[in-house]
């Protein structure tokens, strides 16, 4: 029993020799997708490194803020402001961590 191939809106029926060939755009797009995946992996690696460095910086920043908070006078208020700023940056760091997982 022979399979019949339908002709749609004036198109030629598909020949058996064309059914096994991949379209040209699929062959040409492979390097593009490979480049995209490679660059994505590099971006994720860099973001992870950025998170580690940012965490270390915020730890040092928090020590400065704690030292300023522990003093007397107007420096105590500056220390409180620095602590609030550090907390805001830590929330940004946690959102960046979610982005890289």
From TrEMBL:
SUPFAM superfamilies: BAR/IMD domain-like. Pfam families: IMD. GO terms for biological process: cell projection assembly; plasma membrane organization. Coiled coil: none annotated. This is Metastasis suppressor protein 1. InterPro entries: AH/BAR_dom_sf (IPR027267), I-BAR_dom (IPR013606), MTSS1/MTSS2 (IPR030127). Gene3D superfamilies: Arfaptin homology (AH) domain/BAR domain. GO terms for molecular function: actin binding; phospholipid binding. Residues 1-25 are annotated as: Disordered. Residues 1-101 form the IMD domain. PROSITE patterns: IMD. One of its GO terms (cellular component) is cytoplasmic side of plasma membrane.
């Amino acid at each position: 029993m022979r399979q019949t191939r339908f002709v749609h809106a004036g198109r030629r029926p598909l020949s058996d020799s064309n059914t096994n060939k991949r379209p040209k755009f699929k062959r040409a797009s492979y390097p593009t997708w490979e480049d995209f995946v490679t660059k994505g992996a590099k971006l994720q690696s860099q973001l992870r490194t950025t998170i580690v460095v940012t965490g270390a910086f915020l730890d040092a920043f928090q020590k400065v803020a704690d030292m300023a908070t522990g003093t007397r006078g107007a420096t105590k208020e500056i220390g409180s402001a620095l602590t609030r700023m550090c907390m805001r940056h830590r929330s940004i760091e946690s959102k960046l961590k979610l982005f890289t997982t």
